[in-house]
Design a protein that fits this description.
Elements (H helix, E strand, L loop, with lengths): L2 H9 L2 H8 L3 H27 L9 H29 L1 H5 L2 H22 L16 H24 L20
């Protein structure tokens, strides 16, 4: 199956039709997506701030990670499911939206950053787990994670205010504030 046919089949699927025809589906699913995304960002931010040494290094990195990881993955799964439902409802528009594409790229970057951190830097965590300076690689991973997740949030909001490829602000828009 070629890519345009895949996008068409996603948009024609029963979940996509339900999202388009139900009056409450889109706002409820979008609210769930936003709340789950906020939970993902919040739990990751706690870990990233610990990697950056905030508020201090007394709490073990391994403990912070183990406390946050389960909630992060649950919230990520919920956010992914809700996001997939929103995408399915209008796949053609989303796939052509530059902000959407950049959001997917930022998500990929966040995933690669996490994989590199856990695959390499986290392997020797015992030497810097508690009351020790966090290695530069871990601090860079934490800073990159924050930057990438803030980008995901920014781009997610941008999707709602853009159509297609056009990021230009209209020249001399007429705004009528009369009630």
């Amino acid at each position: 199956m070629d890519f345009p046919a895949l996008i068409q089949s996603i948009q024609a699927s029963p979940p996509a039709q339900w999202m388009r025809t139900s009056l409450a589906a889109m706002p409820v699913v979008e609210a769930i997506h936003v709340l789950a995304g906020a939970t993902v960002f919040g739990t990751i931010l706690i870990v990233d701030l610990r990697l950056l040494g905030f508020p201090d290094t007394r709490r073990p990195v391994t403990r912070v990670c183990s406390e946050m990881l389960r909630l992060t993955w649950i919230a990520f799964a919920v956010s992914l499911t809700a996001g997939a439902l929103m995408f399915a409802a209008n796949a053609h528009t989303y796939i052509g939206n530059t902000a959407f594409r950049l959001k997917m790229l930022a998500l990929l970057g966040a995933g690669v950053n996490m994989a590199l951190f856990h695959g390499f830097t986290f392997r020797n965590v015992k030497s810097w787990d508690q009351n020790a300076p966090v290695p530069l690689a871990a601090r860079i991973a934490g800073a990159m994670s924050i930057l990438l997740w803030v980008s995901v949030i920014f781009l997610a909001r941008w999707i709602g205010f853009t159509k297609g490829f056009d990021f230009q602000v209209p020249v001399n828009p007429h705004i009528d504030f009369q009630f």
